[in-house]
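Data card: per-record layout.
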Amino acid sequence: MTLAHAARFMIHSRADIAMTERKPAGMSWESWREELIRLAREEGLFDNLAGAGKPLADLGEHYDPDWWVKRLVQREKVSMLPQALELLRKVEAEIERIWTLRDESQVRERVRAINLEIARANTRASQGPPTRLGPLDADTIVAEWRSRRR
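The structure for this 150-residue chain is written out next.
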């Protein structure tokens, strides 16, 4: 619950009137904020907050004006790469996952799915560099998968 949201339901102790998000007339901004904070503490709105008792993240690092964009990209796993490079990155990750599969039919299915994605990307016009990926040879990948399992 936010402080402003909590203020709607709190009672101002001096005038015994319901507080709203608007500052009461005749009260300074500072005293109004302090009153809201005091009431929120009494209600326990600051108890058990996430991160309580932990050091602030990135406290010792230099200030970066784009910190919020970088955190958003990291949190949401947004890629800023051109489509061709993103596909290359995805294929490399899928190949690494293939080596961990237990069944040859699963390997062939993953290769088929990767090849469909490569074909889809190669037929679309996109911005940035062109894709340099061709279809993967399922038999070659299965042979490599078998040799890694031994």
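Known properties of this structure: The chain is about 50% helix and 0% strand. Confidence is low (pLDDT under 50) at residues 8-17.

See the next section for split statistics.
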